[in-house]
Structure formats: C-alpha cells, structure tokens
Amino acid sequence: MTIRDANWVLSAGTFLPIAGVVALLAVPRANERAVKLVALATAVATAALAVLALAWFDHGAAGTMQFVAQVDWIPVIKSTYFIGVDGISLPLYVLCAIVTLLVVVYSLDHVPSPGNPKAFFALLLVLQTGMAGTFIAQDLILFFVFFEVVLLPMYFLIGVWGGEQRQYASLKFFLFTMFGSALMLVGFLSLFFKTGAESFAIPYLVAEGAGIARTAQLWIFAGMFVGFAVKVPMFPFHTWLPDAHTQAPTQGSVILAAILLKLGTYGFVRIAIPVLPDAARAWAPWIGGLAVVGIIYGALGCLAQTDMKRLIAFSSVAHMGFVMLGISTLTSFGLNAAVFGMVAHGLITGMLFFLAGSVKERYHTLEISRLGGMLTQVPRLGWILGFCAMASLGLPGLAGFWGEFPAILSTYRPLEGLDTGLYRAYMVIAALGTVFAAAYLLWLYQRTAFGTPRDGGGAAAVGHDAHGHAGTALADVNRYEWIAWTPLLVAILAFGVAPNLLFRLVDPAVTAVLGAFGG
Amino acid sequence: MTTLAWSPPVVDYHGLAPEIVVAVGLCVVLLVDLFVAERGKWVLSILTSTTLLAALLPVLTLALSDDAVREMFDGRYVVDRFSLVTKGLFLVAAYVVVLLSSAHVEEGDYWRGEWWFLLLSSVLGMLMMTSSRDLVSVFVALEFLSIPAYMLAAWRKRDPRSNEAGVKYFLLGVFASAVLLYGMSLVYGVTGSTLLADIGARVRAEGDLAAVEVLAITFVVVGFAFKVSAVPFHTWAPDTYEGAPTPITAFLSVASKAAGFVALLTLLLVAFPGAPAAWEPFVWVLSALTMTVGNVLALRQRNVVRLIAYSSVSQGGFVLMPLAVAGSQGDAALRAVVTYLLAYAATNLGVFAIVLAVSRRTGSGDVGSFAGLFSWAPALGVLMTIFLASLAGIPPLGGWIGKFAAFQALLGAGTPWAYALAVVGAVNTAVAFGYYGSLMREIWMRPAPAEGVPAAPTPPSLSLALGLTAVATLVFGVLPGTVLRLADLATFAGALGS
User: Do the domain assignments include residue B319?
Assistant: First the structure.
C-alpha cells in the first residue's frame, strides 16, 4: 500500500468522534475531568487525522478525487459507502475538524449553563461526524444521511444550552432545515430515477445528469435548491438564522457559522450545479438576484440590530450572499471566490461568535448600547475584535477580502449565455453591500470598543471575571481563549497575505466541477 | 345434480406449522389457567412468549426450505416469502408486546389467563391473514384478529375510558367489517369467484370497468381503511388508543395496523392489480389526508398516548403512499410497505416501552410527565429521543429507511400525481417534527419536577423489550440492507400476474 492509497484516513477521521462518544458514555457523569479529557483527546486525534489527510493529499492533482473508497452499503437501493475529497472539499473537511477542536478547547473552561459536560461534548462530537461526513460523501444517500445527522445535535445544543428563547429558536431551526431536506430528498430520488435508476454516486450522476430533460431538471433543481438554500441560508429562507445564532450557546454559534452554513453552499457546488447544468444555467440569475437581496437585506438588518450577536448573525446572511453570488456566475472565477469565501467566513465569523461569547461572559450583556470602552477595560479582547471586524468587512490583506472582492469581480463576466447586463447590476448592488458592511462593522466596533466603559455593563460585571474570581477589573483574554483563538487569527492573516495557499487547491477542483459547462 | 367425489384436501403440515404451534399454545394457556393458583399465573406469560418463539422456528425452517411457495386448498392458503416475512414480523412484535405486558398485567387488576389467550388468538388471526388468498379466508382471518382485540381494548373493566375504547373500537370495527363484506359480496357477484387469483384474472380481462366493480373495490378499500385508521376512517383510533391498556395500544398500533396493511396489499396486488384506475386515486387521497390530518391533530395533543395515536395515524399515511402507485410499481410498493412496517414496528413498540416505563414512575400520561426525563432517567431519555427521531424519519435511524423506501417507490412511478404526493409527504415529514420535537423538548429542555420523581425500577422484561427495539431501530437505520433484504424477499406468489 502506498501512502496515496491511504483512504482509511478519511473514514477514521470521520468516525473517530463516534468512538469518542462511545467512550464518553462509559465515563461517569460526575467525573467532569475525565469527560473533558476524553473529549479533548478525541478532538485532537480527529484534527490530527484531518491534518494528516491534508499532508498526504496530492496537491498537484487537486482536481481529482483522492483517498477514494467505495464499499457496498445498501446494495438493494444501489447506494454505496463512497467517499473521497478534492480541492473543494478538503479545505472544508480540515476546517471542520480544526474548528471542532478549537470549540472543544474553548469549552473546557466554558461549558454553558445548565452544565452537564458529558452530554455537551458528546453532542459536539456527533456533530463533527455529521459535518465531516457531508464533505467527504460522494454518494447522494450517504450525503443525505450525514446532512441530517447534523440536525439533532444542533437542535439539542441550541435547545438545552441556549439563551432565553432557546426552545423557540431550536424548533424553528429544525423545522426549516427538515422541510428543506425533505424536498431535497425528493429531488435526489427523482434524479436517481431520471438517470436510469442505476446509482446514487455523484460522479455517475454528473455524467448522466446533463441528459435529463430540461423541465425535469428545473424541478429537480428546485427541490435541491430549497434544501440547500435553507441551510445557507439564502433570503427568504434565512429567518431561522438570527434566532438560532442569537439563542445558541457560543460553541453552537461558532459551529453553525463556521461549518453548518457551508453545507448548503457546498451542496450547490458539489451536487446541484455539476449534476444539472441546464437547470443551473436557468436558475443562476434567480440565485444571483436572491444573493444580492441577501447582501443588502443582511446589511440593513445589521444596521438595525442592538444586540451584538444578532448583528453578527445578520452579517452572516450578507456574507453568504457574496458566496452565493459567486456561485451564481457559474464561472471558475466565481466558484473559486465562493469556496474561498466559505473558508474565510468560517474563520472570521466563527471567531466573531467566539468573541461575542467572551464579551457576554464578561459584561453579562450583548446590548451594544450597554457595552463600550473595551479597549480600556480589556484591551486584548478589544484589539482582537477590531482585527476580526476588519477581516469581516473585507480589508485587503486579511482573509475576508479574497472571498468578497473576487466574488464581486466575477459578476462582471458571468458564464456565457447568462445576462451580462443583469449581472453587472448585481455587481453594483453587491459593491454597495461592502460599503454597508464597512458601516455596520465599524459602527459596531466604535460603540463597543471605543469610549469609556458604561455603567450598566462593565460596572455590573466587576467581580465576575471569566473564572468567577473576585476582582475589581474584568479579566482579559485567558489561556483557553488564547489557545482556541490563535489558530483562527493566524489563519485569517495567512490566507489574507497568501491567498494562493487556498486558491491553488480550489482552482483545479472548480475547473473539474464546471466541466459540464464546457470550461 | 351430479355428486362429486370428495377428496380430502392436502394439508402441508410444515407450511401450517406456525399456525398450529400458536393454536396449540393458546389452548395450553387456556387449560393451564384453569389449574394454576392466582399467584402462579405468571407462568402464563412464560407460556405465551414460549409459544410465540416456538412458532418462529417453523417460520425460519420454511424460509430456509427450497420450496419458495406452498399452496394449499386450491391456492386459497399460500405460504410464500411475503407471508413468511410478515409472519415473522407479527410473531416478534407480539413477543415484544408480551414483554411489555407481563409486569403490567401482574400489577394491574386484570384477568390474566384470558389476556394471554386473547392475545394469542389475535396473533393467530394475523398469521392466517398473511397466507389468505381467498375472500372468505381473508374475512375470517380479519375477524379472528379483530374480535379478541375488541375485548382486550376494554380490558380495564372498571375504567369507563377503557369501556369506551372497547365499544368504539367494536362498533366502528364491525361497521367496517360490514362495509367490507358488502364489497366482497359485490366482487363475488361480478367475478363469480372468491379466489383472489381468479378475481385478479377476471377484473383484468374485462377491459373497461363496470360501475359495480369500482363500487366493490372502493368498499373493500374502505373496509381496510378503518383497520389501518386512514383518515377519514380514523376516528376510533385516538379514543381507543388512549383508553385501552397501554400494551394493547402498542399491539393495536403496530401489529393490528400491520395486519390491515397486509390484507390491503394482498387484495390490491393479487385481486385488483388489473384495475388500478379504480383504487389508485382513492388511495392517493387517503394517503394525503391521513398523513396531513394525523399530523395536524397530533400537534395539539397533550396526552402522550393520544399524541402517539395521531402520530401512528399519520405514519399510516406514509405507508399508504407507495400504494397510490402500486398499479404500475407493484413490486417496489410491496417492498416499501414491508420495509416501512418493519421499521415502524420496531420503533413504535420502543416508544410504548418507554411510555410504560415512564408512567410506572410518574403515574401520569401527560406530555408534561416527560419533563426533564433526561435528567432523572438519562437512559430512558436518550432511548426515547432515538425512537422519536426514528419516527420523524431522521437518518441514521430505522424510520428513515422506511420513509426513504416509500418515497422511492412513489417517485419511481414518475407521474405528476406521484410527485405531488411526494411533496405532500415531504412537507408532512417536516410538520411531524413539530410534535416529535415537542416531546424531545420536554425530555431535554424542561426542568424535572421539583418534588422529584418516585424511583421504580424498570422490570427486566421491559428492559429487554427496550433493548430489542432499540437495537432493531439502530441496525435498520445504519445498515438498511438488513431490513431492505427482508423486504426484498417479500415477493407475492401470484401477484401482478407473475
């Protein structure tokens, strides 16, 4: 066996967390130290396997599926356990292992009320399996199963460990996603029958899908569109997102923003577009339109928020709008931007939600009007917030820029056959969106970090630093936070300075995906 | 009138062995009941479960034997793969019901001997149903399985709710039987035969359907629609489920319902496959109504058993879904229904096991009695979550493969009506989570009652039932090949003219 045949690395990396959960079940609930140790060990090992996959990946051939494994799973319905990664899925796969690890590290010191770390970590690990599996699945049924596995853990994370309105928010999250995925399954099955009921393997469907009659393609695409668009979320399916994000515990928000939303956009890139090229072409202007509506709507929503976490949530709607706009051009330029945007948004918004969690912990509020003067009270936290706000608004030199700017640029020349005039209009509107983004983020930063500390926020919190020690000053970034955040901050900077680290990997894969469009 | 020479029918004792074992077992139970003292009655539950497991043995040997099909009495009684798979389902489901009942019956104020006797009688009716290929034997089997169930539903004699349950079930059941019988008499009048295979050949051969044929088929379908509690013939189900002793509710909602579907499958696929135009649209409407109305009503329930009752009404709608295209997709529909029934049986019996275990401690059937279940009984909480998620159709749990198979069979037809029903089903899948999720919310997100919950150990039989159903639910979901293979075996002898 040569090292390139090491396809066990993906399966091991995906299912190791389940083994961790089984181990957790054996640990008594009262022994929190052991619970945390098992969870941390599992997360570290999982992340190590993901990094190993990254190292063993043949970077020269990022356009082809690697670590491919195909094993019989449900022969009766012609579905197989078929996995592999290419340049699009690998970054997302690695991202989700790393983010889960960082979330676990962060949680060592921050298990949200009402406690019970055993259940909390078990759910985080199940979530990791679902997310990682979605990115490596090369079979629609397998994809669907992993896609759904994610739902319940997130439902419980929000519903049990969330804020005041957690029960409402978690149910809303679940119903929206369930509705979308049920229609998506109908779409998958129609696709299966229309391609001759031979196989659910994505490469097979890519080869056969273009032959489906146009009307059928349009309907099947519509089914998948609802499933993926709810997850992204695209306007007008986004209403679950602000509630879910606001109510979720910090860890839930981070994972939701960093990984879960990407499942939707990834579905478009991996499945909907390459399998149904005609439908994609027909739907693209509509997707682009909804994307720019999302950009503007999200930005306006941000300007209207008084709650820091809710503001970040709405900014997600806007940022995912840029990703979808890039996808809607159906060009390799646009898709490159979109995949970069996914990773960048994952890093930056994940980081922002971490910060929101830490702010909440120190100030006991996220009301922007009651915050202020972070730079004088907790300067390090304040500076990190500033850094992330800059990254989020798309400052050149940081990761956010390379997701946003090329996405806008790509609309200048969409795929041949799409209405150039329309796309240029989108370009103008999207560019306006970046101005709004600068406005709401800088305004947020100004109100929270500058000025002098307010009475209602900081003063009330004096005496409760992150460790609950008595003291007169708020504690700045603590050890666990540094460990959890540094990798994200470094990655934001690294991808900003050297975007080619990622583009080099993504570009060949995107070209392969767009094969159906004749280049 | 010439005298026909009488020749004795050929009886294939191996083929009839499961029925014979159960028949002997129920006589033994009845006799032993007469001679054991009150405190020794626990032996009856052992006898009952032994009978059921013993009957499973010939089912296995028959499945392994080379003869794929054994016909008796001129093809009126057939042991084929379909009947073996469903016999296995009924025996195992009944075994789990015995596990659910034993502690319940010992502790309750019940007549114990008759309980086990009636349960076995009903199971015998179900076994007969799987093999019946004649209008008369279908009807006899139906009554055989129903009449003991009417009595069992009213078993809590001093509880007016239980009486109500029994009477409602009985009256509507008898009414349905009458409608069914009327339909069957019309079928016989038109075709001149009671043998399903003959009916199938004639209904097919005559080309355009006469109005009386359509009427006959419709009445037959209505008769079974009561049995499977399809909307608008479901009205008995919630009251009966709520009032009946909980193990009997489990039995009705799983085994009895499955028996109704088995009969419906037999009639549609063996007797009426040539006339899909007469029943496909009707089944389409039944399916869409059943899942939607069942769901909407379930959303409003505050009593756990009523909630599960409406949920099982709605699940019935999903089982009907593939039948709406069974004219063109007979094989796929058959597989889908069997798959669904297997997965649903495992999951729903598990739900009832939890309901029993929880009500032993809280003494309440209110949804609120599940509050904080995860904190005061983590194992029950997690298992209930698994069962509910399975019912909601979330992979990788058993329920999803049932839903998947149903959607697959439906979409295989590729007609606009099939797509429309699939969309209705998809929307309902999401709506259903509204109430499954609300139960999960009680379990996980609500505080446990401040005064605490009385401790009561879960009896070993109940734990065994929980273990069996949970393992089946997980295995069916993670390795769907297992359940799909069973369903794949379930081919009808003589169905669809093959």
Answer: yes
Nearest to B394 among A74, A151, A175 (CB): A151
Question: Which chain A residues contact residue B478 at CB under 8 A?
Answer: none
List CB contacts (< 8 A) between B332 and chain A: none
Question: What mean pLDDT comes out for the span B148-154?
Answer: 91
Cβ-based contacts of B394 with chain A (< 8 Å): 148, 151-152
Q: What is the pLDDT of residues B178-208, one digit of tens each?
A: 999 999 999 999 888 899 888 888 887 556 7
**Residue B72 binned pLDDT confidence (cut-offs 50, 70, 90):** confident
Helices (H), ranges, A83-239: 89-109, 117-136, 140-149, 151-161, 166-194, 202-209, 214-231
Domain that holds residue B118: 13-497
pLDDT of residue A154: 93
Residue closest to A192 by CA, chosen among B399, B477, B410, B393: B410
CB B454 within 8 A of CB B361: yes
Subunit contact B407:A151, Cβ cutoff 8 A: no
- B262 or A369: which carries more pLDDT confidence? B262
Quick check: helix, strand or coil at residue B34? helix
Residue type, B164: E
Q: Which residues of A touch B445 (CB under 8 A)?
A: 159-160, 166-167, 170
Question: How high does pLDDT run on average in chain B?
Answer: 88
pLDDT for B372: 87
| Dist CA B9 CA B210 (whole Å) | 36
Q: Are strands B77-79 and A66-74 parallel, antiparallel or unpaired?
A: unpaired
The boundaries of the domain holding residue A483 are: 3-517
B214 touching chain A per CB within 8 A: no
Minimum-distance CB partner of B422 among A76, A148, A186: A186
Kindly list the distances between the CA atom of residue A502 and the CA atoms of A56, A64, A506, A515, in Å, as whole numbers in the listed order.
16, 16, 6, 20
Domain presence at residue B477: yes
- Distance in Å, alpha carbon of A171 to nearest chain B alpha carbon: 7
CA B263 to chain A, closest CA, distance in angstroms equals 25
Query: Which positions of chain A have pLDDT values less than 50?
Result: 1-2, 456-472, 519
Which of B339, B387, B390, B411 to mutate to probe the A interface, most A CBs <10 Å?
B411
Q: What is the pLDDT of residue A470?
A: 40
- Any residues with CB less than 8 A from the CB of A218 and at least 6 apart, and which? A278, A279, A282, A283
- State the pLDDT at residue A473: 67
**pLDDT the model gives residue B20:** 95
- Give the H/E segment covering residue B78: strand B77-79
Distance from CA of A277 to the nearest CA of B (A): 21
* Rounded CA separation A117/A130 (Å): 20
Report pLDDT for A458: 46
**Exposure string (b/e) for B315-347, b if CB count within 10 Å is 16 or more?**
bbbbbbbbbbbbbebbbbbbbbbbbbbbbbbbb
Binned at pLDDT 50, 70 and 90, residue B412 comes out as: confident
> For chain B, what is the domain count?
1
Half-sphere exposure of A363 (CA within 13 A, CB side): 30
In total, how many domains does chain A have?
1
- Stretch B126-139: mean pLDDT, rounded? 92
B420 touches chain A (CB under 8 A): no
Give yes or no for a contact between B329 and B322, defined as CB atoms under 8 angstroms apart: yes
pLDDT at B498: 38
Contact map slice: B 442-481 vs A, CB within 8 A = 444-445, 479-481
Assigned domain for B7 exists:
no
Torsion B430-B434-B438-B444 (CA) sign: positive
Q: Do A219 and B445 touch (CB under 8 A)?
A: no
Bridge partners for A80 per DSSP: A72
Cβ distance A186 to B411 less than 8 Å, yes or no, reads yes
Mean pLDDT of B271-294: 90
Q: What is the pLDDT of residue B483?
A: 78
